[in-house]
């Protein structure tokens, strides 16, 4: 069961949710994004970047797997779709235990490398541009983040 969920109606709204979430994050926090192609995972990551004060344009890291951005905290944006059915380790540990925030699209493809706890945001498509964002916190730390975010909606 998700801790809570909310519906957005535009990509701007999804970015806004992520932007607010960003203000609650600390170094070493890990977010995983699930949802089909076009659900809005990269859109969410763009909002997160804005919330962390990243000035550069954030694009999908599908081909590079990881992109790093300088913000108030460093942002490590990963898209591990291409690692499906491989056990390639691109040094995940250093990112997950690093001094920045990690956001991972298609994280279940690298399940073995994920840290013990993280916050999963699952995005599902509804009618038109509706998206349901469901939050699954992996421990108390992420639960309090989700609770605070929930309080703003
Ligand atoms: P993913 O990374 O999950 O494949 P993207 O973020 O790249 O998805 O693409 C999502 C697409 O859906 C974008 O074109 C975005 O503008 C559009 N979109 C429409 N409505 C929404 C919404 N409510 N939230 C997020 N994206 C939306
Ligand atoms: Mg994407």
Automatic annotation (TrEMBL):
Chief location bin: cytoplasm
Subcellular location as annotated: Cytoplasm
A Pfam match: TsaE
Domain of life: Bacteria
Gene3D superfamilies for this protein: P-loop containing nucleotide triphosphate hydrolases
Keywords assigned: ATP-binding, Cytoplasm, Magnesium, Metal-binding, Nucleotide-binding, tRNA processing
Keyword Magnesium found: yes
InterPro entries given in the database record: P-loop_NTPase, T6A_TsaE
Family stated for the protein in its record: Belongs to the TsaE family.
Protein name: tRNA threonylcarbamoyladenosine biosynthesis protein TsaE
Species name: Lentibacillus halophilus
Species classification: Bacteria, Bacillati, Bacillota, Bacilli, Bacillales
């Amino acid at each position: 069961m998700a801790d809570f969920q909310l519906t957005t109606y535009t990509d701007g709204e999804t970015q806004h949710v992520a932007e607010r979430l960003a203000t609650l994050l600390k170094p070493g926090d890990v977010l995983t994004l699930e949802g089909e192609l076009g659900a809005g995972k990269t859109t969410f990551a763009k909002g997160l970047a804005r919330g962390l004060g990243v000035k550069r344009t954030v694009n999908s890291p599908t081909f590079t797997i990881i992109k790093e951005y300088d913000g108030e905290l460093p942002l490590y944006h990963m898209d591990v779709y291409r690692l499906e059915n491989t056990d390639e380790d691109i040094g995940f540990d250093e990112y997950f235990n690093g001094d920045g925030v990690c956001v991972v699209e298609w994280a279940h493809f690298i399940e073995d490398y994920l840290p013990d706890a993280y916050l999963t945001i699952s995005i599902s498509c509804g009618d038109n541009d509706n998206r349901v964002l469901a939050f699954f916190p992996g421990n108390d730390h992420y639960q309090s983040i989700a609770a605070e975010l929930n309080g703003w909606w």
